[in-house]
Amino acid sequence: MFENFVGSLPGAVYLGLLYALMALGVYITFRILDFPDLTVDGSFTTGAATAAVMISHGVSPWLSTLTAILAGMAAGACTGLLHTKGKINGLLSGILMMIALYSINLRILGMPNVSIMGEDTVLGAFPPIPFMIAIVLIFKFALDAFLKTDLGLSLRATGDNKRMIRSFGVNTDNTTILGISLSNGLVALSGALIAQQSSFADATSGIGMIVIGLASVIIGEALFGAKTVFRATLAVVLGSVVYRIVISLALQIKGFETSDLKLITAIIVIIALVFPTVRSALKQRGAAKKRSAELLKSLEAAGGDR
């Protein structure tokens, strides 16, 4: 078992880096904007489908990947418009767009799946893990830098307190649309790279992506903290890698099969959600015991003085 796990570790790290871009996108909506965006399941497939179809027709893989990002951003913008201009509940806006994207993605693909086996991809010319580390760090640092600009601060303030930031003259509709667009652009990029890594795009490849993204965000924050933007984005990236490593380890345990992947994911998310609460409760209990001991000590000292 241990030997199999060690052998699968590089692949788990590689997958974790590929999905880290999607996790960064989920972080923008769920943590920065406080927006429950379920478009992710659709925009991930949109990125994969766009890149795969263009590559299969002989278009440059770099241009195909860029187009996939733009397609994802367009999907995110539609969700943002439904919510801000159409006044539709945020959760419902994401669900509606996710449903619409299923048909759109089938239109893009023209069939349930498209193979790009043997085609040139952006991943083929470089060592896989070092290349993905470089790509992830570029987008991580770019996101960090953006969130420190005036526009980025407006975006963060929109998620914290819309009424307050409106009083400063900021159009929160625009910042919301921008944030959701950037989020789904990163998700589509991840989908495009996953399609090139696996050499095919499938119409159902995005199902459950939102859970994987949330798992990465929650695990990263629970293990590494999120006190600053730099630390939070780094935690999300590391959380994605840790998540894939845990999944790889779990699948080596006897009794678990590949079909149990969703169950394992749910268990991991539950543990990650409960862990901070348990840790906080233990800290409070420890602090209470310490205060009780100090109080008892002071009472004993007072009794001795009498």
UniProtKB/TrEMBL annotation:
State the InterPro entries in the record. ABC_transp_permease
Topology in the lipid bilayer is annotated as:
Multi-pass membrane protein
Keyword Transmembrane included in the entry's annotation: yes
Where would one find coiled-coil regions in this protein?
none
Entry annotated with the keyword Ribonucleoprotein: no
Report the main location listed first in the record: membrane
Q: Which UniProt keywords apply?
A: Cell membrane, Membrane, Transmembrane, Transmembrane helix
Signal peptide location in the record? none
Query: Which domain of life does the UniProt lineage start with?
Result: Bacteria
State which residue ranges cross the membrane: 12-33, 62-82, 89-109, 129-147, 168-194, 206-225, 232-251, 263-282
Protein localization:
Cell membrane
Q: By its UniProt entry, which PANTHER family does this protein fall under?
A: ABC TRANSPORTER PERMEASE PROTEIN YPHD-RELATED-RELATED (PTHR32196), BRANCHED-CHAIN AMINO ACID TRANSPORT SYSTEM, PERMEASE PROTEIN (PTHR32196:SF69)
Q: What is this protein called?
A: ABC transporter permease
Taxonomic source organism: Saccharibacillus alkalitolerans
